[in-house]
């Protein structure tokens, strides 16, 4: 049936296949501001208006739009003038990556509310993973009434104003609120084929035979690849710099599958639908192998070395012979001879970390009190709204181009060149606008098979993951079991700390060893103690791989440390804040951090001020009993954490800055902005050195062909390391410009002053000036300066969090009443951007603490792989969040700045557990703290 309708006042008369969604139709017509995220109507990113009524277009049938008027985000601005809601989102910076923003604005325009509480409740249909909602709420309030909230961000434009410390709005704001950014899913070359993957239905099996005959006969199928069609080259999907430290245990396609969702075959076809249908026509003969999903069981007898119980006799995993009188053998998940850098394949140990100092036995012998607990932390999903997606094609000169939603374009380039035996300069990788990453896009998960298909077919190829694949076939945070034992004297001084941690790294090693390293080194390094030991192992199981995730293992370690320290303070009747203050490190302390190349240093330390600030804001009084109102109990809890800025001696950044012929500057950096505002911050840094304003600096970023090397966006490194490289390049350019002026004037002035527009001589007898555009034209060569920076030492950022909670003892429901965090940030280059990072990280921590958890069945299959059953925080779940920056300039960071993106998540879960314990006396040792778990503990139905 032909459909007649309007989109943004443009007439359409088309037909579409049955079952087509409105979302698909809109994107086919080029309206790319409507984003594809969940396809189940759960996130709101695809919201549009049908006859002025907001609908989720992903579940709205296209056949229902006949004779209707459809409005998308592109239709809100009139004659180039933003509507009030769009302008409010720019003014209040109600976005980070921006992938949810078009749908958020389309919903917000139609919301009706009287109070903020009503507004937050009305936002249930729209999810954001980046911002933590607070800036979005302020944006919507302002959009409804332009005078009801102050504009908290300003644009520095006066030459006399420092660019550092200015809340300059992110420069992609206009494009984001009008639906203009081109994310990776929004463009593909003409003639692009589409790739889909047949995935394993078994947790562990060897492939005897694959029959692709019927699939190849399907019209529209161009190629099908299996392990028989590819070279057997082991590699790691982790995006790390050379020398790559991770196990090389992954293959393009393998003759063995190791988890439900593992790759078996790749189909390339004219459309994604044809490719998916062809996958279903492939038949596979499997040899089913025993599997194991518990990392404690997966180590076999080796588990005893860490003090954990060998439970194989009591709880055998499915497939290992339940009911047998003898302990069943443990399957070896990586028995292939080609893989390497695996610590102990025979016992499924992907990586191991052992660090110690002092005499642990002596330390425990000196203790007046020894406490120990085991903590269980779940696997959780990153849930960035934009899926993994890559597009690859060949240029006429033979260059392979990969356009990808990646945090690590240069690492991806290196790996692709190695896998396919290509010269690195013939591989170009660049990122488009990224719709969130949080560590999951530090993996090379989609680029490799796209490139294989392009090289084999000669055609452009695009592969976009579905939301189900994001949940079941990418990476999660490492589930961990952490055992912590602490000895302490009556006066509160620590005598011994021993931590053992087992991380479930899943089917592949990825980041496993590096993650477990931070699990121990960060929390043990934070506190002074003469006798310490950490033993950590990342262990293979037949579950989806784990990988990099904001906090990178330190999150799990701090949960155990901050919970047990709080319990010790309670036992010794010490104030938990003063107990911590007594033992926290300072600038004079050495740290237990092990490997020299990861060496961290306490450059500046505002911990004492941060503790005081949180205490004062919460009006905390030591010893105050919890508030009791019938079945409602209120309590307060605290936690402290730290995280390094970048990877010392490993994370490298190079930068080029040029004076263009028009007198403007051009900054080229390989740094990756994943929605954090890095491109704005780096421009501010360059402007400060060049004594100009950020808007005089154009930026080209994240392109292996057009920009110099940068290790990428991870480890809180962009401001700390890439920012230093920008400073060096800007200083070099400044010197180059001044030297050029001296050459043109043929004098050596007493002083030259660069003010961003003019260069002036300050001689007493000579008073000359030249503008930068004229200087560029007079120069006989391009005025370009370069730099390279790799930190010798990686400074530490500290955070203190305090929360107030209310617990309903009849239901187990926890309500966060207030949340206050003080961050020892060194210097906030852009305070509003930093605040957005902090609030977003805190809210991600709320999800980790209270609602988020991947559930597995006995086969290792994830049973909640969608946004309806995987519970992200909603706007109504988020309490008032107060953020305070402790600015003690760090001697190692650019203009005194330190990393801030990761440390903020580490305090949240333990602070909430401690607050619940303060309110109820119940200390849970397992996350998330669901109402059911807490209620059962209150009723005494299970161990806390």
Automatic annotation (TrEMBL):
Keywords: Iron, Metal-binding, Molybdenum, Oxidoreductase
InterPro entries hit by this protein: 2Fe-2S-bd, 2Fe-2S-bd_dom_sf, 2Fe-2S_ferredoxin-like_sf, 2Fe-2S_ferredoxin-type, 2Fe2S_fd_BS, Ald_Oxase/Xan_DH_a/b, Ald_Oxase/Xan_DH_a/b_sf, Ald_Oxase/xanthine_DH-like
The 2Fe-2S ferredoxin-type domain, residue ranges: 1-76
Family matches, as CDD domains: fer2 (cd00207)
Family: Belongs to the xanthine dehydrogenase family.
PANTHER family hit by this protein: ALDEHYDE OXIDASE 1-RELATED, XANTHINE DEHYDROGENASE
Protein name: Molybdopterin-dependent oxidoreductase
Organism: Floridaenema aerugineum BLCC-F46
């Amino acid at each position: 049936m032909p459909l007649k309708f309007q989109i943004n006042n443009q007439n359409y008369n088309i037909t579409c296949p049955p079952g087509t969604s409105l979302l698909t139709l809109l994107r086919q017509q080029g309206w790319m501001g409507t984003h594809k995220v969940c396809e189940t109507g759960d996130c709101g990113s695809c919201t549009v208006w049908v006859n002025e009524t907001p609908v989720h277009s992903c579940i709205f049938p296209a056949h229902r739009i006949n004779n209707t008027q459809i409005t998308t985000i592109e239709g809100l601005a009139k004659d180039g003038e933003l509507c009030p809601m769009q302008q409010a989102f720019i003014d209040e910076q109600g976005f980070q990556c921006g992938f949810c923003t078009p749908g958020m604005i389309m919903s917000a325009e139609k919301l009706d509310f009287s109070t903020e509480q009503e507004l937050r409740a009305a936002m249930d249909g729209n999810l954001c993973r980046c911002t933590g909602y607070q800036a979005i709420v302020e944006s919507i309030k302002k959009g409804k009434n332009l005078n009801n909230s102050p504009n908290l961000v300003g644009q520095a434009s006066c030459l006399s104003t420092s660019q550092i410390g200015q809340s300059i709005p992110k420069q992609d704001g206009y494009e984001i609120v009008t639906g203009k950014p081109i994310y990776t899913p929004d463009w593909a070359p003409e003639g692009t084929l589409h790739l889909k993957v047949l995935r394993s239905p078994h947790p562990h099996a060897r492939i005897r035979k694959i029959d692709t005959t019927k699939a190849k006969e399907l019209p529209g199928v161009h190629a099908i690849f299996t392990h028989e069609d590819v070279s057997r080259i082991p590699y790691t999907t982790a995006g790390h710099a050379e020398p790559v430290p991770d196990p090389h245990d992954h293959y393009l396609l393998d003759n063995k599958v190791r988890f439900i969702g593992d790759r078996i075959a790749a189909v390339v076809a004219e459309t994604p639908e044809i490719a998916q249908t062809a996958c279903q026509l492939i038949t596979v003969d499997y040899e089913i192998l025993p599997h194991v999903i518990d990392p404690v069981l997966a180590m076999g007898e080796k588990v005893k070395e860490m003090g954990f119980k060998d439970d194989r006799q009591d709880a055998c995993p499915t497939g290992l012979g339940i009911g047998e009188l003898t302990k069943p053998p443990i399957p070896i998940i990586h028995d292939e001879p080609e893989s390497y850098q695996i610590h102990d394949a025979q016992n499924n140990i992907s990586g191991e970390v052992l660090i110690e100092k002092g005499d642990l036995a002596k330390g425990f012998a000196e203790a007046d009190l020894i406490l120990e607990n085991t903590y269980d932390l779940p696997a959780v999903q990153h849930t960035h709204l934009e899926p993994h997606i890559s597009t690859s094609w060949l240029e006429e000169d033979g260059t392979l181009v990969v356009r990808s939603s990646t945090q690590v374009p240069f690492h991806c380039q290196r790996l692709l060149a190695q896998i396919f035996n290509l010269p690195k300069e013939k591989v170009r990788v660049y990122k488009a606008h990224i719709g969130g990453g949080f560590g999951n896009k530090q993996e090379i998960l989609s680029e490799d098979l796209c490139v294989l298909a392009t090289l084999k077919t000669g055609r452009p190829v695009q592969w976009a993951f579905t939301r189900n694949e994001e949940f079941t076939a990418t990476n999660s945070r490492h589930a961990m079991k952490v055992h912590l034992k602490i000895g302490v004297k009556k006066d509160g001084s620590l005598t011994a700390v021993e931590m053992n941690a087992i991380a479930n790294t899943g089917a592949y090693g990825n980041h496993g060893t590096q993650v477990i390293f931070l699990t121990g080194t960060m929390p043990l390094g934070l506190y002074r103690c003469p006798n310490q030991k950490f033993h950590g192992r990342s262990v293979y199981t037949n579950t989806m791989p784990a990988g990099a995730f904001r906090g990178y293992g330190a999150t799990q370690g701090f949960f155990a440390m901050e919970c047990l320290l709080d319990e010790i303070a309670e036992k010794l009747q010490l104030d938990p804040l003063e107990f911590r203050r007594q033992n926290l490190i300072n600038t004079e302390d050495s740290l237990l951090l092990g490997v020299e190349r990861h060496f961290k240093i306490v450059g500046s330390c505002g911990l004492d001020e941060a503790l005081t600030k949180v205490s004062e804001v919460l009006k905390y009084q030591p010893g105050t009993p919890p508030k009791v109102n019938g079945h409602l109990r209120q309590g307060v809890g605290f936690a402290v954490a730290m995280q390094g800025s970048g990877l010392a001696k490993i994370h490298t950044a190079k930068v080029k800055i040029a004076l263009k012929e028009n007198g403007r500057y051009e900054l080229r950096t390989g740094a990756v902005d994943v929605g954090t505002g890095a491109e704005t911050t780096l421009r501010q840094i360059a402007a400060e050195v060049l004594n100009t304003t950020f808007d005089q600096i154009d930026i080209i970023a994240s392109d292996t062909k057009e920009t110099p090397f940068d290790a990428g966006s991870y480890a809180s490194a962009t401001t700390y390391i890439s920012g230093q490289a920008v400073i060096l390049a800007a200083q070099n350019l400044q010197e180059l410009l001044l030297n050029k002026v001296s050459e043109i004037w043929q004098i050596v002035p007493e002083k030259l002053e660069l003010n961003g527009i003019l260069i002036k001589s300050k001689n007493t007898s000579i008073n000359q000036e030249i503008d930068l555009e004229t200087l560029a034209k007079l120069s006989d060569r391009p005025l370009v300066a370069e730099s390279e920076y790799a930190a010798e030492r990686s400074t530490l950022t500290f955070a203190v969090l305090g929360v107030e909670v209310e617990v309903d003892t009849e239901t187990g429901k926890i309500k966060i009443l207030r949340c206050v965090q003080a961050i020892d940030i060194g210097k906030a280059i852009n305070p509003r951007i930093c605040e957005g990072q902090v609030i977003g990280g805190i809210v991600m921590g709320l999800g980790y603490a209270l609602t988020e958890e991947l559930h597995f069945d006995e086969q290792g299959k994830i049973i909640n792989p969608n946004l309806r059953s995987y519970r992200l925080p909603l706007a109504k779940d988020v309490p008032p969040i107060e953020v305070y920056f402790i600015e003690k300039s760090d001697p190692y960071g650019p203009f005194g700045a330190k990393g801030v993106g990761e440390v903020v998540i580490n305090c949240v879960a333990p602070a909430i557990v401690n607050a619940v314990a303060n309110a109820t006396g119940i200390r849970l040792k397992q996350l998330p703290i669901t109402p059911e778990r807490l209620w059962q503990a209150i009723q005494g139905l299970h161990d806390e």
